Description:
It contains 25 helices and 19 strands. With 610 residues, it is of the alpha/beta class.
Amino acid sequence: MCGITGWIDFTKVIKHQEHIVSSMTETLKKRGPDDGNVWCGTHALLGHRRLAVIDLVGGKQPMSKQYKNQSFVMVYNGELYNTEELRQELLKRGYTFTTMSDTEVLLTSFIEWREQCIDHLNGIFAFAVWDEQEEVLYAFRDRLGVKPFFYSTKEGVFIFGSEIKSILAHPSTSTQIDWKGLAAILSIGPSRVPGNGVYKGIEELEPGCALKFSKSGLKKWRYWNVQSQKHMHTFDETVEQVRYLVTDSIKRQLVSDVPLCTFLSGGLDSSIITAIAANTYNKEGRTLHTYSIDFEENEQFFEKNEFQTSQDQFWIDKMTDTFKTTHQNITISQQQLVDLLEEAMMTRDLPGMVDIDSSLLVACHIIKDGYTVSLSGECADEVFGGYPWFHQDYNQFPWIRSIDERESFLRKEWQSRLQLKDFMKHAFEEAVKDCPKLDGEEPKEAKQRELFYLNMRYFMQTLLERKDRMSMGASLEVRVPFADHRIVEYAWNIPWEMKNVGNMEKGLLRKAMEGLLPDEVLYRKKNPYPKTYHPQYTKMVQSTLSNLVQRKGSILHELFEKEQLNQLIQSGGASFKVPWFGQLMAGPQLLAYLIQFDRWFENYNIQLVE
């Protein structure tokens, strides 16, 4: 993928201030190590860092194109998966192309269809187009939010970038956090409220949304959302359609001019992708390379629980033997997990999923040594109902737990100021309120629909953000075939009894893939991303956090009760046996989250404001 930046300023001429956008763009060098450029106009500067994947010579950006005495300039982060269909359609309409890149196809699509170009796209993207004659900036983000887009605006000025750090590199911005931002980090974190960048004055263009910035100001709109309607297909027809959509999405995403591999955990989602990719490669006389993640001495210390019921190796071996892939198991040490906590936080610009992030960052660095593109199984659980909480009643975000206990660590005055439970309750109610309803739907089915919407708007965004930042932090492009909007649109209206056929998580997806995977893999119980259970990791985060707490000036002194924080450290988070976030973030991860929180405040010079 790539990194994009921009500065639009109608209050003054900025064409000679290229150095500012160059500095902004340079913060994204890991996203695009192959090339970097800035385009300069009177009131607009656009920056781009490139990770070359398709048309290595012709896809340079920012890209300009003239049409009928008009000039358009675009910066784009993403991939189109229907490039050739679009190219043929545009050729029929009289356009010509000078490159084989999807960048030129996308820019030409905008010239032809303007704001409606988005209806023609299949892909993952965040892009901005500057209309030189009209002096208008248009920006779009893909339907599911796979690719990021942040911005900051005030009267007459609009600053944007792929990551928060690029916006912070502009001299007019600052690292201020108000109480709402702090409440988000300490209540729903590592999630974020959609549209909110946590930093004061920094916002996010939400998935499925677009904007227009001109001398008249900023206009935003939602161009896509799931549409609730009655599902009309029989079960057999549904199985066939799911199989077609998933297979087509994976095959489309195998297109690349650079080496491509897949993540493989032996779970259903990564195995489906690997099987289809391997079969496609085998027909072409090629061998697929696969990667898995494990931890030193994990076999000795693994603890079976309600979320992680088994280790992965047996199923990985089954897959690699069946599909003849060249496989590498990446074994990560406890020291690597701890050492990269700070880098993982800075890759996100916020506290994140701690060692769940740092382990992925390690893996992506290793994969990048041989590959530029990888496919991964994110989003299948959110789309087809793979999580335990799809089988539970709920009246709040079901993946966020222990809010009372976590709030009790705060000093009383901060408990009163932040009101973490109220903040989380409001975020939950707003998310549920936005869910597209279906008139006449049974209450139980309507409740399940709400739960799918919550997962799509919150939990899925957290995982997609993690995958984007950690992979891009290693200059590795990761594609997520289950985030194809056609799959999401179709699955949205499939009744729960079909999705959960056989009373098994993702039962419909399993049924659709019969004959593709070995039965042992096809019917393996859902297992999340692997994590360490080594006591040495707990000891290391205890020691690190203890040292930070003893430092003068730490934000931990300001916010948290000293005695309770020390008890938490000494116990290794023992009271958090059940994860407080998702399926993996238990006691040791809470200590690691506080480490990231402390390092974030200091490294970013965070200023608390009301």
